[in-house]
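Changelog-linked ticket: flavin-adenine dinucleotide example.
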Amino acid sequence: MKVVICGAGVIGASTAYFLAERGATATLVERCDVACAASGKSGGFIARDWCDGQPQAELARASFDLHAELARTLDADYGYKRIDTLLVAGSDRGGVDRYRAMEAPAWLDGHCAVHSAIGSTDTTATIHPERFTRALVDAACARGARLVHGTVEGIARDASGAVRGVRVDGDEIAADAVVIAMGPWSVLAARWLPLPPVAGLKGYSVVLGPRTPVAAQALFVEYENAAGEHSSPEIVARADGEVWACGQSSDDPLPVDPADVSVDEAKCREIARICGALSSRLDDVDILRTQACYRPICADAMPLLGPVRDVPGAYLATGHNCWGMLNAPASGRAMAELLCDGASSSVDLSPFDPARLEAVRIDAAAD
Ligand SMILES: Cc1cc2nc3c(=O)[nH]c(=O)nc-3n(C[C@H](O)[C@H](O)[C@H](O)COP(=O)(O)OP(=O)(O)OC[C@H]3O[C@@H](n4cnc5c(N)ncnc54)[C@H](O)[C@@H]3O)c2cc1C
């Protein structure tokens, strides 16, 4: 079976890996670079039970376990580490002592108080998102998959309307099946296929390089600035010593080319400033990267995993919103099962069937 996967973010990479493991011929097509978008710039925080009570609870629990297995079996160091996760209150105006319910780790010596532990080494972990995505692509290629740099421009269909191939930079790559895994850019594929709308929500983040090490931990912070404005930064101190932090967003529209995502340096500086206010070890440190990315989200904020209505051979794998790094392994494995066996046996994909949302037909004519 020849499968073309459009987009080498973590969802496309995972799908390619599990397809290659099953002996399918997987071709991954990427417009810019592996993990150039959210999959390389996200927090890389994963949690076993934070999706409990939602349709993706089973997917998340299966994925958390699969992450542990992949960390043992993939031949790569991408900083997988089980960590403690804390809920923290911080303020430029002081007065957070009333929230203090437990002792802070030594590195949290600034204007803050630890309210509670919301995750432990049993339930939360961190990975380096870009290195993880690259590890999946490398492992897929070692098992026979192919990575092609190019822009997907359309889907070729035969007289019956079934997928025949994928148009990439003016050429056609023959395919029995295509998986649209272009994250928020999956919206562009609605010109070729009847797809539910997918949007991109933009967030800014920084990567800091502390000179004095901080413990690998994650913090979910409620922060008040000097003007009394509130934000909710998330901080992930990774296994490699780098500290990632986010907490600023914008409603900038998604650019057509992923290479054109712009960074607002002032928003990034504010994230770094808050980190410095929380910890002297993060004050006046090197800002290694300032970055922005879009998380893919659809109308009900749940993943879209399944066949495209009325187009044999076309599949969609996107919409993972704020949990794409967590849910990539189980999503990729389930997509590979669906493609190769006709159904997923490891998790129930029915809550994520794209058919649950009204399809938008822009131009789905067969050619
Ligand atoms: C600030 C932020 C923090 C986050 N933190 C976490 C976290 O801690 N834990 C977690 O689980 N999730 C997190 N997420 C969510 C997670 O990052 C995303 O859900 C996930 O990365 C989506 O992966 P994807 O493969 O669907 O899309 P993307 O990573 O966007 O990949 C899509 C790929 O498609 C390519 N592409 C686009 N157009 C074309 C084309 N025409 N032809 C070929 N290729 C194309 C792009 O270049 C890109 O590489 C975070 C998201 C944000 C924004």
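Closing comment: Example verified and attached. The domain at 2-76+127-198+299-356 is CATH 3.50.50.60 (FAD/NAD(P)-binding domain). The first helix runs from residue 10 to 21.
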